[in-house]
Amino acid sequence: MAFEAAVGEHDITPVFPPYPSLWMGGYGWGPRGNHGAVARRLRAQCLVIWDDDVPKVLLRADLISVPRDVHQVIRGTLVDEGLVANDDFLLAASHTHSGPLYGDIRPSPFVMMNLNQDDIDAVNGTTWLITDALVQLVRDTLDLERTGVTLSYAEGAATIGSNRVGNGPVLDTVPVLRVDTTDGDLFAVLFGAACHPVSRGKDEVFDGEFPAVAAEFVENELGVPALFFQGACGDQEALDPHVPATTDHLGTLLGQEVVDVLAGGEFADVKGPVSTSLIEVDLPFQVDTAEQDVQDMLRAKYEARRDALNNPSDPNWRHAEVMLKLIVDGELPTSMTMPIQRWRFGGLSILALAHEPLSAYHVNLRDEFDGNLWVMGYANECEGYIADNDTLRSGGDLHGGYEAGWNEDDDTIAGFGCFTISYAWPSPLKFSDGDTPEEGTTERIVMDAARGLLNT
Is the overall model pTM greater than 0.90, yes or no? Predict the structure, then answer.
């Protein structure tokens, strides 16, 4: 039996007014804001696939990330309105570094860019305008006329990045899911890659980045909507130099590969019924922040860091201030929650990982899985990096410890300039000292959960 589908789109490019904030996300450690310049409009796109009259909703947006509290509002609103079942809704951000700052918790606008409360309030104003638009886009797409469609899947390859950590692979997989009408006409294209959208560089121009260039290339060539989904690109850096011309080059390269796959790829049929599942796992920190003696230790270390730096313009000082307040208020987090979602079709499984997963998860999961597997990152919410055990235990020896979350030979607190600073976490995620991830450590928890979803 054929599926039915509909595609909707909405422009989410902030413009003042009505958007109160044009602060931009993606780079620290000082203020960065848009002043009206737009290279490419930022888009949200929604694909609804009805399987036996049950809607499965894919919503993607040109955003740096979606924090947990915003994700829960979007999902909760749609589920509470009876529009979609919880497991049947998948939200994804492209991770463009040339879009708006979205949310006020992770990353922390105060820590990352030293914004004051008025600016943070404005960020929230823009956040909720975009959030309302995303929810409305789903409502509108569900109301569109349905088209009978068939699905099929193939993969290409395009090298558009490098491994910036240096201890892992370079991902070049280009997954392509074609959506055809039952009459044989192309209806829509879903495609992906795994690479940080930083090719433009740190300017003050809104841009969907190379994913937007690629999507527009496909749309101009084929005349149908093209939807991009980011992969496990936590350690995948766009090729140099990071200038606007590179954005055009990499996007065109990726878009051309998608067009070439559509023209000559060996597509496998993708059929129903569709089985969906969404779970959450809690990733512990390297130290147990629920223990009083650990809190006392962290308090002493963050007080020492704050006093030694004695400089509010330093993000590491601001982070220490935030951590100390959390300790005093009894609100220090004890783990990072990670949603993991699986959509299984006949002929294709999609595994959507929250946060910024490193490439090892893409490689290891695909090596273990027998069949077509599309690994997505930045799915549903994003509040930090999910490194593999080797990267975590290496700390500052790899890329300054940025993705590991610690350096300076101290794995108990957030490392200087690491992701744990901007994302306002107290400590790196838990790891094993040996080569094999032990039970209860980050890589083991994520891989066991993913295996469980893929094998049931």
Answer: yes
